[in-house]
Design goal:
Amino acid/polyamine transporter I, mainly alpha, globular, 15 helices, 72% helix
């Protein structure tokens, strides 16, 4: 029988594990082989240019986390930052928005992405799967990720470190083969607007998707109660993660662009897994199979990272009286927020099931992707805005705490605009549901009683 308590496992997570929590959240193999197509659909052969700009954009956003983590390290992550800046009620809404991002959006979204990547990947390798196979594959990913997350944060992140390292090495090996089979591997023009049919307009819109493809770099903040030397390690971990991911994605976007052909990128984004197609073409069947295995694993560890962050958001909100108290229970042995993990997984499966069968898996992928993208953008807008308010309370407000978050704020507002450029019935459905969800949260937390924020020892210094 499980004995309920309220504490996560202290000092369970080291510096490297923090970094791979965030790296895993971006799912490098899936992002490189599949989701870069979103940026390429607008920027075409100027795809690498969008990642140069995205790196600077993410660094400006990372500054906010860097500064906040000097003072605050919590299992509430972004929710706690917003609560410290704006107070409990707005903070509660910030936690609700993060649930839109992770629980409502990203959890079913990654079930779809992993399932569809598996289904399409088998097709690329010449093994067609039944059209309905996306559903059992998604359920298998959901249950396997839940099991590992339930067993404790140490097990989750140890697995992520080992497989994530191999995953990035395999991507670099594939990049070597692609470049070695490319007739013109050196092409500086891809860092200009030469191959963008609409010039800077296409690059700007491509930046929206390059920027959001790096989302997840700050998810390590939700391990603040479990990390060793949390204030110090999260602060430097965010910067290291952004630089590593930014450089890696920039290099891989260059490889994919010159490998496919900068002038041919109009066909690149019409394929769901163009990166796997290039690997098969230039690296052969063995490398393609290995890449495919780790591509699927990339979706699995991304699922782990998402539910680890989302469940800790709910766990902390529950402790503060903003969600049912049972969500702040932790497992007696594993010290995982197991009740919150159960709810996160069940909600994800229900949404995956309803949207997948009602709209079809690709449209379910689109709908949950809109919730994911808009959720992270709105959350970061709140986060960036809260920083100067927090340090004004501490009488330590500096001009950089206003200007740098302001730069990030402008970029996020543009990204929010870019997220809704394509309008169809499924986008409209996603927006309507999202607005209802956000309005309900805003009204509910504006009138809710019984909110009582009690910080743990060392959570704020």
């Amino acid at each position: 029988m499980v004995s309920e308590n309220k504490q996560l496992k202290k000092n369970a997570v080291g510096f490297l594990e923090l970094i791979f929590q965030s790296i895993s959240f971006t799912a490098p193999a899936i992002a490189v082989t599949a989701t870069m197509t979103g940026a390429a659909a607008f920027a075409y052969g100027a795809l690498p240019l969008t990642y140069i700009l995205a790196l600077f954009a993410v660094l400006s956003a990372g500054f906010v986390i860097y500064v906040f983590s000097r003072k605050v390290a919590s299992s509430g992550g972004y929710y706690r930052y917003v609560e410290r800046g704006f107070g409990p009620k707005v903070g509660a809404f910030g936690g609700w928005v993060y649930m839109l991002y992770t629980v409502i959006g990203a959890t079913p979204f990654i079930y779809f992405e992993t399932a569809l990547a598996t289904q399409v990947g088998f097709g690329v390798l010449g093994i067609p799967l039944p059209s309905w196979s996306w559903y059992p594959i998604g359920l298998l990913v959901a249950l396997a990720a839940f099991g590992l997350a339930y067993s404790g944060i140490k097990n989750s992140l140890r697995y992520s470190v080992y497989t994530g390292t191999i995953e990035m090495i395999i991507l670099l090996v594939a990049a070597f083969f692609i470049l070695s089979h490319t007739s013109h591997p050196l092409n500086g023009a891809v860092f200009t607007t030469k191959y963008s049919p609409t010039g800077w307009t296409g690059v700007a819109l491509g930046l929206v998707f390059s920027f959001t493809s790096l989302a997840g770099w700050g998810s390590m903040t939700f391990l603040g109660s479990e990390a060793r030397a949390a204030h110090f390690n999260i602060r430097r971990g965010v910067i290291v993660t952004i630089i590593v991911l930014g450089a890696f994605f920039l290099f891989m976007s260059y490889v994919m662009t010159v490998g496919w052909g900068p002038a041919n990128m109009s066909t690149y984004f019409s394929n769901f897994l163009p990166g796997l197609i290039l690997t098969l073409r230039d690296g052969g069947i063995v490398l393609a199979v290995i890449m495919f295995i780790f591509l699927v694993n990339s979706g699995f560890v991304d699922t782990l990272a998402i539910i680890n962050a989302g469940s800790r958001d709910m766990y902390t909100m529950s402790k503060d009286g903003m969600l049912p108290t049972s969500l702040s229970n932790t497992h007696r042995k594993h010290k995982s927020p197991h009740i919150a993990l159960i709810y996160n997984t069940l909600i994800g499966i229900v949404i995956f099931t309803i949207t997948g069968w009602a709209f079809g898996p690709f449209n379910g992928f689109l709908v949950t992707g809109i919730w994911t993208g808009a959720g992270t953008i709105i959350e970061h807008i709140m986060l960036n805005t809260s920083l100067p308010f927090y340090f004004r309370k501490l009488k330590d407000l500096r001009w950089t705490y206003v200007v740098v978050p302001g730069i990030a704020l402008v970029i996020y507002l543009f990204a929010l605009y870019g997220s809704f450029l394509s309008v169809n019935i499924y986008v409209i459905i996603a927006v309507v549901v999202m607005v209802i969800y956000l309005v309900f949260g805003a009204v509910y937390y504006s009138i809710k009683k019984g909110i009582k924020v009690v910080l743990e020892e060392g959570e704020e210094v």
